[in-house]
Specification:
- Helix 3 links the parallel strand 3 and strand 4.
- The protein has two domains: about 170 residues, HUPs (Rossmann fold, 3-Layer(aba) Sandwich), CATH 3.40.50.620; about 90 residues, 2-Layer Sandwich (Pantoate--beta-alanine Ligase, Chain: A,domain 2), CATH 3.30.1300.10.
- About 35% of the residues lie in helices and about 20% in strands.
- The chain is globular and about 55 Å long.
- The chain binds adenosine monophosphate.
Length: about 280
């Protein structure tokens, strides 16, 4: 059977009306689907009787100088991936059918959760994510929605929004899927040359150095971060944007490793911005 594809909230709403007795798992994406997305889809299928995927390259979350126009779009391939993965319905709205317009009502997450990490350089990004994810959750009304831990700041902010706005959905965080080299799968890896991809493996390798120190009972944050930057310096092509150790829920910086902490990094290789993180304890 062909995978049903809906382009407006109304069309999707009609479809969902006749499936409301089922449990709905929802995976919001921006497309250019890879193994990381597929792991979210697999989990949504396992834990629900209906799996819905959305593909929407959200203009609100791109800054003026970012890659909105360049962002990879491959709907036909994504459709086949979803069909093969057993997705029940695909939602591919346009900006117009998502109701994007000037003077849009927006969801603004707590400033303290947006001030560090990616929020420092990507002004307006998380407000754009929060607004669209909230709209998508209201349109789909899933029982569970699946997000990757790779976007740890996004995941923490979405958990917070769902709690603060009493949105009736379970947010499920899913582990980061990586290539054998350790590089996290990302739609933006398509921008990298083969050499760039192998250089980018330094990101995860360097994060692991902090865990190795933590395993030796090191709690000093400066020493943990220094272990990461030493490893990073082995690949001069990597331009560090930030490296921060924060509380995984509040995203506030920590000064000693007493509990599990989120070690998050962003930087560029071949001018492609990549992010990654690990929980260290
Ligand atoms: P995106 O299409 O980049 O907006 O990602 C859609 C969802 O897939 C988000 O919840 C991401 O966190 C998640 N995701 C992206 N890359 C990975 C990965 N390598 N492993 C697991 N989840 C991922």
């Amino acid at each position: 059977m062909n995978l049903p594809l809906f382009t407006t909230p109304n069309e999707l709403g009609h479809y969902l009306q006749s499936h409301r007795s089922q449990s709905i798992g929802f995976v919001p994406t921006m497309g250019a689907l890879h193994l990381g997305h597929q792991s979210l889809i697999d989990r949504a299928r396992r834990e629900n009787t209906l799996a819905i995927v959305s593909i929407f390259v959200n203009p609100l979350q791109f800054g003026a100088n970012e890659d909105l126009d360049l962002y990879p779009r491959q709907l036909e391939i994504d459709r086949v991936i979803c069909q093969t993965a057993g997705v029940d319905a695909l939602f591919v709205p346009s900006p117009t059918s998502m109701g994007l317009k000037d003077a849009l009502t927006q969801v603004i997450p707590p400033a303290m959760m947006m001030s560090g990490l990616c929020g420092r350089t990507r002004a307006g990004h998380f407000q754009g994510v929060a607004t669209i994810v909230t709209k998508l959750l209201n349109i789909v009304q899933p029982d569970r929605a699946y997000f990757g831990e790779k976007d740890a700041q996004q995941l923490a902010i979405i958990r917070r929004i769902v709690t603060d706005l009493n949105i009736p959905v379970d947010i499920i965080g899913c582990p980061t899927l990586r290539a054998d080299s350790g590089l996290a799968h990302s739609s933006r890896n398509q921008y990298l040359s083969i050499a760039g991809r192998s250089q980018a493996a330094v990101i995860y390798r360097s994060l692991q150095q902090a865990q190795k120190l933590a395993d030796l009972q090191e709690v000093n944050v400066d020493k943990l971060l220094a272990a990461v930057t030493t490893e990073l310096s082995t690949v001069p092509a990597f331009q560090l944007e930030y490296l921060e150790l924060v509380d995984p829920e509040t995203l506030q910086p920590i000064d000693r490793l007493n509990n599990a902490a989120l070690l998050a990094i962003a930087g560029r290789i071949e001018n492609t911005r990549l992010i990654d993180n690990v929980i260290i304890s």
